[in-house]
Design goal:
Elements lengths: L4 E7 L4 H5 L6 E4 L2 E4 L10 E4 L2 E4 L4 E3 L5 E3 L8 H18 L3 E5 L7 H5 L1 E2 L2 E2 L1 H20 L4 E12 L2 E4 L12 E4 L4 E4 L5 E3 L2 H13 L3 E2 L7 E2 L2 E13 L5 E12 L6 H4 L3 H29 L13 H5 L1 H4 L4 E4 L1
Parallel strand pairs: 1-5, 1-20, 8-19, 8-20
Antiparallel strand pairs: 2-3, 3-4, 6-7, 9-10, 11-12, 11-15, 11-18, 13-14, 16-17, 18-19
Helix pairs in contact: 2-4, 4-5
């Protein structure tokens, strides 16, 4: 439904490879509508697509002394803060309301997913901005309600590499994959042996995520010098604990999944061979599975009597995200 799923699209600047190839700009954005022109038919009517948000981040920006990119006067450039205000604040609002939330960055390899989700340098992405604002909102609420509510934030960070789960918060992250089990009572999948760390401040969560990011699996391809070879999932379990009128403790839990998907890719375009080619094949397979799950959920939301079965079991990624994709959860895709 419109309330439970939001979709945004973002266009990035040309990279060096595209500049050298004299790439032609065929994208135009106006409000939340994206127009795509066919370079082989210059006079043809552009194709038109409408999303919840269309972010123009191709040009019209300047760099501040600290390296932060901001819009030039009069431009419609969408910076990291604007993307966070539209999407990240919704993630936080859902968390405090007790909803599970998933935010995905989806696109082909080299399209700028990691920049939007994690960021680069002082241009912080959605993950660090969500974490920073989560703790600042907790502090504001404590001052306002006199600490009637206790808050607990737990962090885990993993990657799904060739259908194997690696714990990125462990220093020996290169160890063999962790097993994915099913809790039949709760009807959910979980990773056995995954480290879950209680964090008390943004600086602590920032340090943990920086360590985890350093452990990620990267490889150079012709399309992207630092291509993510695995799906990265940062999971924040947010618990609000308070006593009810009968003096019993009640816990409101929300699971936030911030997902940097590995890019879909064509082997002919990336020049991948050997293990890198195998990685690309597994990436494309799991992205197809995710697409099938989201299509099935969309079908169920429009037709409640549909007997369609959501194929969560088809990949490790969809198993792990089952809890945050179905039911009353909120999903945001960029």
């Amino acid at each position: 439904t419109a309330e439970s799923v939001k979709v945004a699209v973002r266009v990035r600047p040309f990279n060096e490879r595209e500049k050298k190839a004299d790439a032609k700009l065929i994208i135009k954005m106006d409000g939340n509508t994206t127009y795509i022109s066919d370079p082989n038919e210059p006079g043809a009517e552009p194709r038109k697509f409408t999303f919840d948000y269309s972010y123009w981040s191709h040009d019209g920006f300047e760099s501040l002394p600290d390296g932060v990119l901001v819009p030039t006067s009069g431009s419609n450039y969408a910076d990291q803060q604007r993307v966070f205000n539209d999407l990240g604040r919704g993630v936080l609002a859902n968390a405090f309301a007790g909803f599970n939330t998933s935010l995905f960055a989806y696109g082909q390899t080299g399209s700028g997913k990691s920049y939007s989700i994690v960021g680069y340098g002082n241009n912080k992405g959605i993950v660090p901005l969500v974490c920073d604002n989560l703790f600042s909102t907790i502090e504001e609420n404590k001052r306002a309600d006199g600490s009637k509510v206790r808050y607990q934030v737990t962090l885990s960070m993993l990657e799904v590499y060739n259908e194997q789960v690696r714990d990125l918060l462990r220093h020996d992250a290169s160890c063999k994959g962790l097993p994915v089990r099913q809790n039949t009572k709760l009807n959910k999948f979980y990773v056995e042996g995954l480290d879950k760390v209680v964090v008390h401040s943004y600086s602590e969560i920032e340090r943990r995520i920086a360590d985890g990011t350093a452990n990620r699996t990267l490889a150079a391809t012709k399309m992207n010098a630092t291509s993510s070879r695995a799906h990265t999932v940062v999971t924040i379990l947010f618990e609000q604990i308070q006593k009810n009128s009968e003096d019993k403790e009640m816990t409101k839990s929300s699971e936030i999944n911030l997902v940097d998907l590995a890019g879909s890719e064509r082997a002919a375009s990336t020049g991948a061979t050997g293990d890198t080619l195998k990685e690309g094949s597994m990436i494309n397979k799991s992205l197809s599975c995710l697409g099938n799950v989201i299509s099935a959920l969309a079908e169920l939301s429009t037709n409640k009597k549909s007997k369609i079965v959501v194929p969560y079991r088809d990949s490790v990624l969809t198993k792990l995200l089952q809890n945050s994709l179905g039911g009353n959860s909120k999903t945001i895709m960029i």
